[in-house]
Design brief:
The structure holds 3 protein chains of 3 kinds. Chain A is mainly alpha-helical. Chain A is built from 15 helices and no strands. Chain A has 3 domains: 80 residues; 180 residues, no CATH class; 34 residues, no CATH class. Chain C has one domain. Chain C: Keywords: Membrane, Transmembrane, Transmembrane helix.
Chain lengths: 371, 99, 102
């Protein structure tokens, strides 16, 4: 089996080098997703099925969706604003400085890592290790799966702070979203032109997969207390379900409503309540009352699943996008009445994003002829 | 050299792979000019750190749930950071910056 | 090595060969449509062989059901995504032509 590990490790390194070396961003992103899948396999080889689940759903799945969506936005934006994106020449001296700096950083990091890895090999096995400590205490934790016990009982402090970090991320994400402040009909136009009718095959697949994904998410959540699974993996599955639903034009988090905000904060809120309430009886922060550990962990995990799923989904959906009717808006001050009929008939047959390159040049020629 | 061969196992091999990834990604992070590629390098750097953490913790006494739980936390934080970075990059590009 | 083992090895090897062929097709074929064809057709066949080869190793009926559900879902997802990619490709090339004519 050593050969498989050798090949997998080299595959990881080659995929990473491919990401770094490819000039084309799309290629880099595809290679990055490949890297994520290889990494999920690696976690399996390291006997960490929880990490494999999370990596496959998050590292390869959601990160890939976010990156590809961003590339799509860039492409659209380039067509909108500046058809020939001026490729700036890199500042040669700055690039040189960066290369030298990178060389120094790489050599020192490599030396440090090699030295520490070599010294780790020379060290004898420690008498106390965390595996035995976890095994000795797992009976009191309320769950029988080690990782869930660590995440939500032994080191629940970390998890609480982690969810708080997620909450901060989505607060910033929502704060930076494109606010549609123009007028009501502009927003409806945007909605119509942007999302063309999805193919029937896609919608039916989405209808088939959505319930399955939600059931799987609940199963993974439930499984977390006895075997690999838990709130993070389940949350990632819920986010994936949301992304899929959006492809089928069922928008869950399109508008930032009170309900959405409630869902985003639910995890931290319940976690904090459970964490603080023992303090009322004089116990330290984050102690579960005896006998209630399993129930409380499941409650927290359930709320965390909802929040993590919604946070990841909202970070995707609320990310800034170009405002769609840009060519029309540019044309109106320039030529007034003529520009609109010029863009009109052409814009209708071409659907969605592709309408923009089609109308752009035409509006220009018409403007020229008019003047 | 015998020392290396004795202690060398799957977990240690992946720790070495993680170290190599970390070093390569560090270089790519500094030298690449495109923001998205910097972000990808940053992510791969994180994965390298995760591999080192789990591999080194496990190579002497088998699967260990403490580093695995920490890395699970790390993976989720990494995706949140990536999503946030993408929001910022998109905003920057939509305002006229170079991606 | 029992007869069952030989059967399993045979099926999994055939499955891997199909994956190999699909990947070669993906790399060597000239355009989007033929590449999708190679990828989806050969890989789904290979996946089917691998699933059949793995079924005897499963201990419970639930595990077998999970394997088969995986197979069916991957078939559905890959066919739909292949359709979407092909559809987009055709739409784009058509628009390109229209644009040229105008």
């Amino acid at each position: 089996m050593m050969w498989f590990d050798l090949a997998l490790g080299l595959g990881l390194i080659i995929a990473a080098i491919g990401v770094f070396r490819s000039e084309d961003l799309f290629r880099a992103v595809v290679l990055f997703v490949t890297f994520g899948i290889l990494l999920a396999l690696t976690w399996l080889r390291l006997q960490a099925p929880d990490l494999a689940l999370a990596e496959a759903a998050i590292g390869a799945g959601i990160t890939g969706v976010l990156l590809l969506d961003t590339l799509g936005v860039f492409r659209q934006h380039e067509q909108d604003i500046n058809p020939r994106s001026s490729s700036q020449l890199p500042d040669i001296s700055r690039q040189w400085a960066a290369n030298v700096l990178a060389l120094i950083a790489c050599i020192s990091a490599a030396g440090l890592l090699a030295w520490s890895l070599f010294n780790t090999l020379k060290m004898p096995a420690p008498h106390h290790n965390l595996v035995t400590v976890v095994e000795a205490n797992i009976a009191d934790s309320g769950v029988s799966h080690g990782i869930t016990a660590v995440l939500l009982n032994f080191r629940s402090y970390d998890t609480l702070l982690e969810v708080a970090v997620l909450l901060v991320a989505i607060v910033i994400g929502i704060g930076l979203r494109e606010r549609v402040t123009t007028s009501a009909n502009a927003t409806s136009d945007e909605g119509q032109s942007k999302l063309s009718e999805p193919p029937a095959l896609l919608t039916s697949l989405v209808r088939l997969l959505l319930p399955l994904l939600l059931i799987t998410a609940i199963f993974v959540l439930w499984a977390g207390s006895t075997r690999p699974g838990g709130a993070f993996q389940a949350g990632a599955l819920i986010a994936a379900a949301g992304v899929l639903a959006r492809l089928g034009q069922i928008d869950i988090a399109a508008r930032v409503t009170t309900m959405l905000r409630l869902g985003l904060t639910l995890g931290v809120f319940i976690f904090l309540i459970v964490a603080v309430s023992p303090m009322l009886t004089g116990k330290p922060f984050l102690t579960y009352p005896a006998g209630w550990e399993g129930t409380l962990i499941l409650l927290i995990e359930f709320m965390l699943t909802i929040s993590i799923g919604l946070i990841l989904l909202s970070l995707f959906i609320q990310a800034p996008r170009p405002r769609i009717p840009a060519p029309v808006r540019n044309a109106i001050p320039a030529t007034g009445p003529n520009a609109i009929p010029a863009t009109g008939p052409n814009a209708i047959p071409a659907t969605g994003r592709n309408a923009i390159p089609a109308t752009g040049p035409n509006a220009e020629t018409n403007k020229g002829g008019d003047q | 050299m015998t020392l290396w061969l004795e202690a060398f196992n799957t977990d240690f091999w992946y720790a070495i792979v993680g170290a190599v990834l970390l070093v390569l990604a560090l270089g790519a992070f500094i030298t690449s000019r495109q923001l998205i590629k910097k972000l990808l390098a940053f992510n791969i750097m994180g994965s390298g750190v995760f591999l080192i953490m789990v591999g080194l913790a496990q190579y002497q006494h088998g699967p260990d749930s403490v580093p695995q739980a920490l890395v699970l936390t790390g993976i989720v934080v990494a995706v949140a950071a990536t999503a946030l970075a993408l929001v910022l990059i998109r905003k920057f590009v939509l305002k006229g910056g170079q991606p | 090595m029992t007869l069952l083992n030989i059967f399993q090895t045979l099926f999994i090897t055939i499955g891997c060969l199909f994956f190999l062929i699909g990947t070669i097709g993906l790399l060597r074929f000239p355009d989007v449509l033929t590449r999708i064809h190679a990828l989806t057709k050969a890989d789904n066949l290979g996946l089917g062989f691998i699933v059949i080869g793995l079924i005897p190793s499963m201990s419970t009926a639930a595990d077998i059901a999970k394997l088969i559900v995986c197979w069916v879902l991957i078939l559905a997802a890959s066919s739909v995504s292949a359709f979407l990619v092909a559809n987009q490709h055709i739409k784009k090339s058509k628009e390109f032509k229209d644009h040229d004519v105008v």
